[in-house]
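Weekly structure sync, notes
Attendees: PL, DS, HV (note-taker this week)

Item 1: Putative Prophage transcriptional regulator
DS walked through the input record. Source organism listed as Vibrio crassostreae. Sequence as pasted into the shared doc:
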Amino acid sequence: MPDSYKKRTLEEKNEGKRFFRSDIKNRFAQRLEEAMAGEANLSFAQKCGISEATIRKYKKGETTPNLEILESIAKVSGKAIQWLIGVESETVKVKTPISENITYIEKFNVIASAGGGAYIDTEVVAELYPFSLEFLKRHRLSHADLCIIEARGDSMEPTLSSGDDLIIERKEFTAHKVLQGIHVISIDGELKVKRLEFDLVKDGYSIISDNHLYQEDFIERKDLNCMRIIGEVVMILGKPPKGLPELH
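Item 1 (cont.): predicted structure, written out as tokens:
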């Protein structure tokens, strides 16, 4: 394995657990403080249906809410979701009005390469896509674990095409947990969309491009700390690809 695969800082390892969130926390904390307009933490938290301790964590920038709680905060404060996450309304597109039966999945302006690899430049919300809670439940998905990013390149053709919006289920990964299927992975700061297959004999993962013009890679179990699993591709917006469910 190339030496470049083995170069990871402690910061990169820690950030892997909260991928996409670090860019939002500080801005949300500032906007929440403004939205509360001096109201006591306990009073505001009760109106939102959450604990006072949770509000304190939000204001300190220690964590961020899922979109269900974000909707509650928006209703109570009278502020728009896009304003609360720190982006001006003309920048972030919200596809439909807030509804009790609708939740939103964030699309980030990062690109996962279905090719040679795309570097992560920024991690901010570009759009909010509405989804029926019933639809997500039917597919055994939790909106808090989902995000949307764009694929770029042709290495996963015909399964994925350049420009496809991928619904990613974010998940924790350890060397002892076997993964199969198409995943977004990060190696040396590059996001890639690849098919992972565990090889019991070789004790590691084959990193496969569905386009046979691209060479297959392999990473041994002992080197898995060099590869960060961002999440599994569970759906593609707007088309019925091979090997993945169609979005209805």
